[in-house]
């Protein structure tokens, strides 16, 4: 096994902003709580970052060696949990920052998990299916010692999917000598995946939007919504909100947006999965640029495409009353302050799109208990878990007059600190 142990240092030497942002957010969150500074200091550092070399025999017989990572931030509340991404820009520092976000996301949802994230620095589009399979199986072998249903449970992320998780689970199971579905989540249901997992982040985003509309005393039937990104998160959120009576006036993909002031039939607009990048093929009264979607005068704006789209340069132009973060990190640190100053409520990603990790938790429970839940049960339990997290965060918003992001961090950090306090520092 060609693993290079650890490493905080590996993470610290790389100039990567995700980690810096994650640490800045932790420091800011700490100022809103009375958490012991020693615990905050411990949370600035991951438990470990495993770096591995992953050799791949290409279809033409040549061998290429890729670098893989698994960052494990904190497991005081349970096994590490988080995605594996295949992307050329994956680094130790990025994985570490993202694993910190997973720690907060699991804690705000009160899931018995900590935060992890990993991946391989590779462009998955440059690989054939056979090559992706061989790469995934070898990666599973290289990080086998640090993952497992009670240690660290990966899931799909950018560039990986249910099939990747199936290969990973098979490779791990073959090496362990028994079938262990709970080593990863996001698998196909036939091998222990959960119904409703794929739609869950969009569903939770829609639930967060619905609750926010209610919190601000509005009626869903009189609410207008714009959604940037019509993929797994954006399309599921848009269609549910449409079904619940809102007027979805605009949706977009990477090529641009369609706009209908009286509302779109979101079920008729092709999602990224149904027909990639085909939103503009749907007839609508008007088309807009992608950036213009963010500036529409709507009640609810849902950025659900990529990170860092609301920045210091366009935050002032955001005309929505509520922004619900379907994507991870769509609002920059600086933009957050501008939105706050303008009275725009931002429902943070760690709460809004946490349906994904929540249903991953349900999948893990189903795998461990060898018992499948129906889609109805998954959706009911997700609704319950979301409402519970929503009400915990809302209580802090009301009691402390904090923005939603700060309140979500207060809930998460308090839970983690309490667990660390109870367990103590060993030895
Ligand atoms: P996806 O690939 O299914 O869809 C992405 C959509 O965004 C597509 O419609 C694409 O055309 C569009 N898009 C891409 N770049 C764009 C750009 N620059 N401007 C406008 N639109 C653009 O992706 P997804 O799974 O829906 O993920 C979207 C976001 O949600 C990401 O930030 C992801 O990290 C986050 N997220 C996803 C999950 C999940 O399980 N799918 C869970 C939590 C968070």
TrEMBL record:
It comes from the Archaea. The active site is at 117 (proton donor). NCBIfam families: GluDhGdhB_Halo. Pfam families: ELFV_dehydrog, ELFV_dehydrog_N. One of its GO terms (molecular function) is glutamate dehydrogenase (NAD+) activity. PANTHER family: GLUTAMATE DEHYDROGENASE, GLUTAMATE DEHYDROGENASE 1, MITOCHONDRIAL. GO terms for biological process: L-glutamate catabolic process. Signal peptide: none annotated. Belongs to the Glu/Leu/Phe/Val dehydrogenases family. Keywords: Oxidoreductase. InterPro entries: Aminoacid_DH-like_N_sf (IPR046346), Glu/Leu/Phe/Val/Trp_DH (IPR006095), Glu/Leu/Phe/Val/Trp_DH_C (IPR006096), Glu/Leu/Phe/Val/Trp_DH_dimer (IPR006097), Glu/Leu/Phe/Val_DH_AS (IPR033524), Glu_DH (IPR014362), GluDhGdhB (IPR054867), NAD(P)-bd_dom_sf (IPR036291). The lineage of its organism: Archaea, Methanobacteriati, Methanobacteriota, Stenosarchaea group, Halobacteria. Homohexamer. Residues 194-424 form the Glutamate/phenylalanine/leucine/valine/L-tryptophan dehydrogenase C-terminal domain. This is Glutamate dehydrogenase. Transmembrane segments: none annotated. CDD domains: NAD_bind_1_Glu_DH. The record marks 157 as: Important for catalysis. The keyword Oxidoreductase applies.
């Amino acid at each position: 096994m060609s693993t290079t142990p650890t490493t905080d240092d590996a993470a610290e030497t790389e100039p990567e902003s995700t980690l810096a942002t994650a640490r800045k957010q932790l420091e800011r969150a700490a100022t809103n709580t009375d958490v012991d500074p020693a615990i905050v200091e411990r949370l600035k550092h991951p438990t470990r970052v495993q770096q591995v070399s992953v050799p791949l025999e290409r279809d033409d017989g040549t061998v290429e060696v890729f670098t893989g990572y698994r960052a494990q931030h904190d497991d005081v509340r349970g096994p590490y949990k988080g995605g594996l991404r295949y992307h050329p820009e994956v680094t130790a520092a990025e994985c570490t920052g993202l694993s910190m976000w997973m720690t907060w996301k699991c804690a705000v949802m009160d899931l018995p998990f900590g935060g992890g994230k990993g991946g391989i620095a590779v462009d998955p589009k440059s690989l054939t299916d056979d090559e992706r399979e061989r790469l995934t199986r070898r990666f599973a072998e290289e990080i086998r010692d640090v993952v497992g249903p009670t240690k660290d449970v990966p899931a799909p992320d950018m560039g990986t999917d249910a099939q990747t998780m199936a290969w990973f689970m098979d490779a791990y199971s073959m090496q362990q000598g028994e079938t262990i579905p709970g080593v990863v989540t996001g698998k196909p249901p036939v091998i222990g995946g959960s119904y409703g997992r794929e739609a869950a982040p969009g569903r939770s985003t829609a639930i967060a939007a619905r609750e926010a509309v209610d919190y601000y005393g509005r009626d869903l039937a009189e609410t207008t919504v714009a959604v940037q990104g019509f993929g797994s998160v954006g399309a599921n959120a848009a269609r549910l909100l449409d079904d619940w009576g809102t007027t979805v006036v605009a949706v977009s993909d990477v090529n641009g947006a369609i706009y209908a002031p009286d509302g779109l039939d979101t079920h008729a607009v092709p999602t990224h999965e149904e027909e990639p990048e085909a939103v503009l093929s749907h007839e609508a009264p008007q088309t807009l640029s992608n950036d213009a979607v963010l500036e529409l005068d709507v009640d609810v704006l849902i950025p659900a495409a990529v990170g860092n789209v609301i920045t210091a340069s366009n935050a002032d132009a955001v005309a929505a009353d509520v922004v619900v973060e379907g994507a991870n990190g769509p609002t920059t640190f600086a933009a957050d302050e501008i939105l706050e100053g303008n009275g725009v409520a931002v429902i943070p990603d760690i709460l809004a799109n946490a349906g994904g990790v929540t249903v991953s938790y349900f999948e893990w429970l189903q795998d461990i208990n060898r018992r499948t839940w129906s889609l109805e049960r998954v959706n009911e339990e997700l609704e319950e878990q979301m409402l519970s997290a929503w009400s915990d965060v809302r209580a802090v918003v009301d009691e402390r007059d904090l923005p939603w992001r700060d309140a979500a961090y207060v809930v998460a950090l308090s839970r983690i600190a309490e667990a660390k306090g109870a367990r103590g520092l060993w030895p």
